[in-house]
Amino acid sequence: MDDTRSPTGDLVEAVLAGRPGAFERLVREHQGLCWHIIIRMVRNAEDARELCQDTFLRVHRCLHQYRHESALKSWIGRVAYSIALRYLERKRIPLTEPCADDGSALIENVAGDFDLESACADEEIVRHLHQAIETLPPLQRTLLTLYYLEELSIPEIASITGKASGTIKSHLFRSRLRLRSEIEARTGVTV
User: Fold this and answer.
1) Distance CA 13, CA 139 (A)
2) What CA dihedral angle connects 158, 161, 166 and 167, to 10 degrees?
3) What digits encode the pLDDT tens for the residues 147-176?
4) Which H or E run includes 59?
5) DSSP class of residue 100?
6) Confidence (pTM)
7) Could you say which architecture CATH assigns to the domain 7-91?
8) Residue 55 burial (CB count, 10 A)
9) Could you say which of 3.40.50.2300, 1.10.10.10, 3.40.640.10, 3.30.479.30 is the CATH number of the domain covering 116-187?
10) Nearest-angstrom CA–CA distance, 82 and 47
11) What is the pLDDT, as a whole number, of residue 122?
């Protein structure tokens, strides 16, 4: 993907040239994505703020390595994901829960019959949904955030996480099933 003539390419060139305000603009445009990835993985606001700063420091130091092969958003997301992943490894926090199956049967249908938006119609269900999301392991929380909140495509998420599309779909499917079960158990309402 050659976006050297796009607004993104222009912004990258401006940052690399040291133009005033360019890096601040890059941070403003991508801080939400960075925050969503990191906070969902580490779950501690103070640590997340520090890791976001680390992310943008690394972006600043390594922006010359960005080759326009993927969207800048995906590249920065990958940096944030890598930094959060290292944090979890240092803290010895598992990225996923042990899976009962051997992983050979990946679920290819992301849509499923669980409609997350409909489930959020009721305020109480929304509260329970957020509580249920917090019980998920870091990887599932992050994938749900990227897919539903950031509205990234499966290929974009794959680019950020380095996970195969089928693996991402499988995690999303299992996460939705678990959320449905948790919400039904907490509220008695079938979603």
Assistant:
1) 33
2) -170
3) 988 889 999 999 999 999 999 999 999 999
4) helix 45-62
5) S
6) 0.70
7) Orthogonal Bundle (1.10)
8) 26
9) 1.10.10.10
10) 15
11) 55
